[in-house]
Amino acid sequence: MAKQTIEDIKEIKGKKILVRVDFNVPLDDKLNITDDTRIRAAIPTIKYLSDKGGRVILVSHLGRPKSGPDDKLRLAPVAKQLQELIGKPIAYVKDCIGPEVEKSVAALTDGDIILFENVRFYKEEEANDPGFAKKLAALADLYVNDAFGTAHRAHASTEGVTKYLKGYAGFLMEKEIKFLGQLLNNPPKPFVAILGGAKISGKIDVVENLLPKVDTLIIGGGMAYTFFKARNVSVGNSLVELDKIPVAKEILKKAIDLSKTIMLPIDHVVADKFDANANVQTVTRGGIPDGWQGMDIGPETVKKFGHAIKKAKTIFWNGPMGVFEFDRFSNGTIGIAKLVAAATEKGAISVVGGGDSVAAIEKAGLADKFTHISTGGGASLEFVEGKVLPGIAALQDK
Ligand code: AMP
Questions:
Q1: Ligand 1 nearest-atom number relative to CA 202
Q2: Domain around 119
Q3: pLDDT in tens, 105-132
Q4: Atom of ligand 1 nearest to the CA of 198
């Protein structure tokens, strides 16, 4: 069901608007922000509401505070960075409920922007405590959710507040729903899904939901070896989830039943230990010899996967093709990133689920070559699994 967006709000001017953003940015030891992508991603929504005279109240979490306020997880560095990026003063208040907060909100004039302190300093946030949600909601007239990265969690600031305020999707949320939604509803064909990463475990539901919708499922990375094991191909010391072999067998059978193609690697870059300086060779035929482990897909595999990727009109990618953190084992992932980027240039829709695949694409300098890179790792996977995300479900239907 399509959701109402901030463009559906009739009167923004003068309204106090509680905006849930995802400012969960990485910080170094000196509390410098090492990647401000998430702040940048929220700016179109913040600017739109502020430019139209809304009184913008930003609320976010940062990290996982264990019990109460933690000086290492304050949003002060975010306030500073946001101010620089948006070119407007950002008021920052060191709490998110209580008298000081109420005073600051009462002092807002049209177009002002205020950032509250880390909402997870209250354990009531993650508990989705109704009393806490009510206190947050009481500060505003309307609610906007632009925090796709936490939309899979029913917390007070993502779900609870919508019991008291009308909820709208921000531009980032709208974009995520549009592109991830398109994968599930009538994606242009051929549809190719590329899954990689360490393990099958976290991706079984994705495979289950996508297999009937795709034409080709490409499997690379560590998770491919459980499929080889399921086919009785030797995998040496490669990563294998023994307890997932039956699931892998089922998936292979289901693909045959549904007449879908599953592509597995045909050559492997293998190492004699899990180390950047290990001895390395590329094996092409048969399985992986004893004493060696698969660390990356080989060049023939990149070519083979490329045949499917080049023909695709829709591509979904989640998970690296190898241990890309070590340069020697990053060629497969970079090769696939280049192929997906080239297909996108020729008109394919490419959607990358968050997490490690995004890190790999950034490492390859290709981040601007994809149709959509999701800002939510867990949230994008749950969306593609076909689950209802509480933070989205709680927003008003169109
Ligand atoms: P995930 O979070 O499941 O997407 O897994 C990402 C991780 O998978 C990355 O840290 C990669 O280093 C790792 N990975 C990819 N291929 C392999 C492999 N062949 N063996 C071990 N780990 C791998």
A1: 3
A2: 6-172
A3: 999 999 999 999 999 999 999 999 999 9
A4: 8
pLDDT in tens, 275-318: 999 999 999 977 899 999 999 999 999 999 999 999 999 999 99
Q: What percent of the chain has pLDDT over 90?
A: 93
Provide the H-helix boundaries in 138-244: 171-184, 204-210, 224-230
Ligand 1 pocket residue status of 239, Cβ below 6 Å: yes
CA dist., res. 215 & res. 280, Å (int):
34
Is 93 contained in some domain?
A: yes
Q: Which residues pair with 29 in a beta bridge?
A: none
Ligand 1 centroid to residue 316 C-alpha, Å: 17
How many other CB atoms are found less than 10 A from the CB of residue 212? 9
Tell whether ligand 1 has an atom less than 6 A from the beta carbon of residue 320: yes
Does position 218 have pLDDT exceeding 80, yes or no?
yes
Using the mean position of ligand 1's atoms as its centre, give its distance from the Cα of residue 380 in Å. Answer: 18
Q: Are residues 52 and 126 in the same domain?
A: yes
Q: How far apart (Å, rounded) are the C-alpha atoms in residues 279 and 133? A: 56
Give the pLDDT confidence score for residue 194 in this predicted structure: 97
Which one is catalytic: 94, 134, 166, 199?
199
Domain boundary among 138, 172, 206: 172
Q: What is the CATH number of the domain that holds 30?
A: 3.40.50.1260
159 lines ligand 1 (CB under 6 A): no
How many domains does the structure of the chain reveal? 2
My answer on whether 18 and 141 are in the same domain is: yes
